[in-house]
Amino acid sequence: MNNINSKDYRKYVNSKIPKPSYFKNCIWAFIVGGIICTIGQIITNFYNNVGLDKEDGAAATAITLIFIGALLTGIGIYDKIGKRAGAGSIVPITGFANSIVSPAMEFKREGYIFGVAAKMFSIAGPVLVYGFGSSIIIGIIYYFITK
């Protein structure tokens, strides 16, 4: 039997782990994130040109980008983009749509109630809870400071 101590084993494992190219990953994240934001700006300009004011155009853009992110996740393209882009695809609002649709699709075989509905917010749920909770706390603090 081959006896190996933990230090040698850790050294062996570290030699086999692929080393990421941080510079290349940052470039891809920047490029893909920039493309997503550019598409968002094009959509905003379109909505503003068809008569929506700035606020309504921004809301329509967010809705459109969420739809595109969910659609691309549903047909399997967004995961391919995410493998290459990393944080460049996660940070924009399309990444939020992906974080809701992906778990729902993964658990769809368990049914619409216990699969899709129950797992839909498994990733995005904590973000929503803490976002709502912190906004309520900030709102209460703001209320008492300005009162």
Short note summarizing the structure:
Helix content is 80%, strand content 0%.
**Rg of Cα set:** 21 Å
Number of helical regions: 8
The secondary-structure class comes to mainly alpha
Characterize the overall form.
Answer: extended
Weakly predicted, low-confidence segments = none
Main β-sheet, in a few words?
none
Structure description:
Keywords: Membrane, Transmembrane, Transmembrane helix. Pfam families: SpoVAC_SpoVAEB. The chain crosses the membrane at residues 26-47, 59-78, 85-103, 123-145. This protein is mainly α. The protein has one domain (28-146). The chain has eight helices and no strands. Helix 2 crosses helix 3 (54-74), helix 3 (54-74) runs parallel beside helix 6 (93-106) and helix 6 (93-106) packs antiparallel against helix 7. The termini are far apart. The model has no long low-confidence stretch (mean pLDDT 83).
Write the layout of secondary structure elements.
Layout (H helix, E strand, L loop, with lengths): L5 H11 L5 H28 L4 H21 L2 H9 L1 H4 L2 H14 L5 H8 L4 H23 L1
Helix pairs in contact: 2-3, 3-6, 6-7
Keywords: Membrane, Transmembrane, Transmembrane helix
InterPro entries: MFS_trans_sf, Spore_V_AC, SpoVA
Protein name: Stage V sporulation protein AC
